[in-house]
């Protein structure tokens, strides 16, 4: 983990970017033992323990019963919530199913995204970025820029996430395209074309209806 991720400051700070992740943890979780559709999860970790309120929906014929269950116990191995806490982020767990979590967080800026993804991958089978939304005041034509990553092909999304994580778009790092292509096991030209198509898709979403 980077030193920046553990530096915390008190006060009120702006969050410019909203990111929605899909995360499959490596280890078991107390949520695995709960029956019903989990629609909302709240977690915090005082004193090294896990405290959670879990909203569960169950079908009862034509009706749907809603219950809120509380859990207090040991922190699950490889819990993504711990990683979010290390980065001083407040996660909102929007969904939990057999495939994992869908989690929404707000970051100070997109510069922190690669560190968060890298640390989440330490504790996860996989991490996917489903959506990035610019919620800052610096908007084009007063319209929030929104990117839906599900519109990318799997190869385009993986290439784009890998490039972001490696710091390819960080001008201060100057990561060579050939080095990045070697990590993917493809040619430089193939990766260049894949990233170009992904970038075109992303830019098209950000600036649609502004031609």
From TrEMBL:
Keywords: Transcription, Transcription regulation. This is Bacterio-opsin activator HTH domain-containing protein. It comes from the Archaea. Pfam families: HTH_10 (PF04967). Residues 152-203 form the HTH bat-type domain. The keyword Transcription applies.
């Amino acid at each position: 983990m980077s030193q920046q991720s553990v530096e915390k400051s008190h006060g009120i700070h702006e969050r410019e970017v909203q990111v929605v992740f899909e995360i499959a943890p490596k280890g078991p979780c107390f949520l695995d033992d709960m029956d019903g559709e989990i629609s909302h999860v709240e977690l915090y970790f005082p004193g090294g323990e896990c405290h959670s309120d879990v909203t569960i929906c169950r079908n009862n014929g034509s009706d749907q019963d809603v219950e809120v269950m509380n859990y207090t116990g040991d922190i699950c191995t490889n819990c993504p919530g711990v990683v979010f806490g290390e980065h001083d982020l407040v996660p909102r767990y929007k969904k939990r199913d057999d495939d994992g979590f869908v989690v929404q967080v707000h970051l100070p800026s997109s510069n922190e995204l690669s560190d968060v993804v890298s640390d989440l991958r330490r504790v996860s089978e996989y991490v996917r970025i489903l959506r990035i939304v610019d919620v800052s005041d610096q908007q084009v034509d007063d319209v929030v820029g929104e990117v839906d990553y599900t519109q990318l092909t799997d190869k385009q999304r993986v290439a784009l996430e890998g490039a972001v994580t490696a710091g390819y778009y960080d001008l201060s790092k100057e990561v060579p395209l050939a080095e990045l292509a070697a990590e993917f096991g493809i040619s430089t030209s193939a990766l260049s074309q894949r990233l170009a198509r992904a970038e075109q898709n992303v830019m098209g979403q950000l600036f649609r209806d502004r031609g």
